[in-house]
Amino acid sequence: MILELKDICKDYIQGKMIVPVLKDVMFSMNEGEYVAIMGPSGSGKTTLMNIVGCLDKLTSGSFFLDGQDMSKCTDNQMSDIRLQKIGFVFQNFQLMPKESALENVALPLTYAGIPKKERKERAMEALSRVGLADRVNFKPTQLSGGQKQRVAIARAIVNRPKILLADEPTGALDSKSGEQVMELFQSLNDEGVSILMITHAPDIAEYAQRVVEIRDGILKEREAQTDR
Amino acid sequence: MLENVRLSFQGIWSHKMRSFLTMLGVIIGIAAIIAIVSTIKGTNEQIKQNLIGAGNNNVSVTLKQGDGDYWMDGGLPAGVAQFTEEQKQRIRDLNTISNVSFYNSRAYVDGITYGNNKLSGGKVYGVDNAYLSTCGYVVSAGRGFLDDDFGKYRKVAVLDRVASEALFQGKNALGSTIEISGEPFTVVGLIEKADSFQPVINSLQDYQTYHQEEYGSVLIPDTTWPVVYNFDEPQNATVSAKSTEDMSDAGKQAAEIMNEAITDSGSDMKYQAEDLLKKAQDLQALSSSTNSLLLWVASISLLVGGIGVMNIMLVSVTERTSEIGLKKAIGARKNKILAQFLTEAAVLTSIGGVIGVITGIILAKVISKVSGTLVAISVPAIIASVVFSIVIGIIFGMLPSIKAANLNPIDALRHE
User: Fold this and answer.
1) Which uninterrupted H or E stretch holds B304?
2) pLDDT at A84 over 90
3) Contact B51, B280 (CB under 8 A)
4) Which candidate in A105, A220, B167, B308 could, as Cys together with B114 as Cys, close a disulfide (CB 3.0–4.6 Å)?
5) Closest C-alpha among B194, B223, B258 to residue B125
6) Alpha-carbon gap: B389 to the closest alpha carbon of chain A (Å)
7) What is the reported pLDDT for A228?
């Protein structure tokens, strides 16, 4: 099991009101699985992603990531887990605008304390993996949307994470670039990387092996998608 | 760390105008401090030079009675012995001293005449053969003293410029005979100071402090001293210290040995070194204390500069919220974010510090040109200024950096 969530509740406090966002969510994911979470905005899917990504703490329930209990982690431990086990892909890429593609990809390695020479090698390797070996010294402003997202994916995989978390990875892309990104996800998954992806587009969700739907903070498995 | 410094330069460079304006407070503060410190140091150097004379590290060790000079007419007072050759040698051997001369002397002498001309208020010295070199005299005409002058008790005299002017009024003095207390002496040489150092006098106060009246000096061999004066008289000494810093020690050590000649412990007689270094330091302390007030004012401008840095760093943190969010999301610990922003603040202020030091040096040179005072650039002050500006960056960068480090990555990522 790469992910194991039991009775997860998450409340937000808004003024004096307690707003429940996640209600007794049960979810688990095997290693090497490729899962899509679908839901309309406000359904709680981003909150779930934040909890799985160790960016947010849960109100109650238990959460194990790669066998490790996450409910009692300190800030620094959560940082280290994000660094070592999780790769993030965001809708709006979140690249450093003034840094080259290579420097953007190498960023997590600096936090891992890897020496400069090895950082460069591994960042090169990750960039060639996403097909951008000829764009290493380009700044994000010189890259197309699809290329930017592939740089972001290279950054997400450079630390060889256990799981890739993607929040609307194709949301800001045209359909052709989106397709390329999905193909890249597919091949990464084939290599054994677990992928959890949020999307509201059904055609994107179809790339996943399994789709779960979230609505008003309640998670439901969707059984229909079996043709992939 | 190096990575952070590189990022800082990048960040500062991409906001050139803003960074420069932010630095301005630090630049002005540091420049003011450097200019003030240089002026203080220059003034101190000036005081020292005025009192001590450039490169001439002489200390007189003289016999005092109570608080005043002992009046040598009285001969050797009770309880005071002549120096033994062994004592003199020990003073010569002191490692702070390069040269020593022992001499007899008379001040305010009226009995020196050449025909109808008279030297009033002059000094007569009965000197040993080290005197001319120790006191920095060179022979400008005729000769100095020879060993035979001492050994054969020759009645010869050497005059300085003031004395020869008074007695000969421009006529040739060499070979002429002058009378000292009625005894005839032949003038064999004229001397003058090797370096004619004139104190720099900018004010009436300086004039009163540094101006020395010259009454003229007549030098004769110490062996002929008893012909004119008493047979037994105490001697004084002039010691040349090896360096200006050694002056106090050289004077004290010599005086200590010379005081062995005072055998009567109840006597109020004492050899004492004229401590010019100490006197210079006292004057320096006085001038420094007035200037240190200015330093406080300059420090306030640094404080204001620091607040400017804090302000702009807070803006920078807000602007870069999503960058901070991303860095935290991909696994940067709090302290990494903290270090990044602290480094940026420190780099910003240290660049300001360096520019400030350069501006301050230029300012000091301008002050020196305009006011005519000496300005000395202080290397320790430059190092301290740069270090201090880094410290300001760290102190005033602390609050914004903590704010950055504590940002919640979820909120920060959502920030556009």
Assistant:
1) helix B276-319
2) yes
3) yes
4) B167
5) B223
6) 28
7) 46
- Which residue in A76, A17, A48, A16 sits closest to B410, CA to CA? A48
In a domain? residue A142: yes
Min distance B410 CA to chain A CA atoms (Å): 7
Across chain B, mean pLDDT equals 86
* Centroid of chain to Cα A172: 16
pLDDT > 70: percent of chain A: 97
Residue A194 sits in a domain whose CATH number is 3.40.50.300
B162 touches chain A (CB under 8 A): no
Which residues share a beta bridge with A214? A219
**Range 94-113 of A in CB contact (< 8 A) with B:** 94, 96, 98, 107-108, 110-112
The amino acid present at B269, given as its one-letter code, is M
Q: Which of residues 18-47 of B touch A (CB under 8 A)?
A: none
Strand partners, B125: B105, B219
Contacts (Cβ under 8 Å, ≥6 apart) of A17: none
Nearest CA in chain B to A98: B10
Alpha-carbon gap, residue B163 to A31, rounded angstroms? 109
pTM, two decimal places: 0.70
As for how many domains chain A has, the answer is 1
Contact B169, B117 (CB under 8 A): yes
Task: Reply yes or no on whether the pLDDT at A26 is more than 80.
Answer: yes
pLDDT in tens, B108-118: 888 889 988 88
**How distant, in Å, are the alpha carbons of A6, A33, B58, B59, B239 from that of B53?**
90, 90, 9, 11, 15
B262 secondary structure, DSSP code: B
Contact across the interface for B330 and A108, Cβ inside 8 Å: yes
Which ipTM did the prediction report?
0.90
Structure tokens at B81: 């012995």
H helices, E strands: number in chain A: 7, 10
Count CB atoms within 10 A of the CB of residue B288.
16
Q: Which residues of A touch B6 (CB under 8 A)?
A: none
User: Per-residue pLDDT for B68 more than 60?
Assistant: yes
Let me know if residue A81 belongs to a domain. Answer: yes
What pLDDT does residue B403 have?
Answer: 94
Classify residue A64: in a domain, yes or no. no
What chain A residue is nearest to B1 in terms of C-alpha separation? A110
Alpha carbons B355 and A198: distance in angstroms, whole number: 52
List the single residue in A56, A83, A98 with the smallest CB-CB distance to B330: A83
CB contact under 8 A, A94 and B326: yes
Phi, psi of B155 (to 5 degrees): -90, 80
Is the pLDDT reported for residue B279 higher than 80?
no
Chain A nearest-CA distance from B350, in A, is 23
Give tens-digit pLDDT for B362-394: 999 998 888 877 888 888 889 999 999 999 999
| Domain of residue A198, residue span | 35-58+74-222
Rounded to a whole number, what is the distance in Å from the CA of B16 to chain A's nearest CA? 15
A178-225 pLDDT tens trace: 999 999 999 999 999 999 999 988 999 999 999 999 988 898 887 654
* Residue matched to tokens 């070199």: B133
Confidence band for A143, pLDDT divided at 50, 70 and 90: very high
Mean pLDDT, rounded, for B306-328: 92
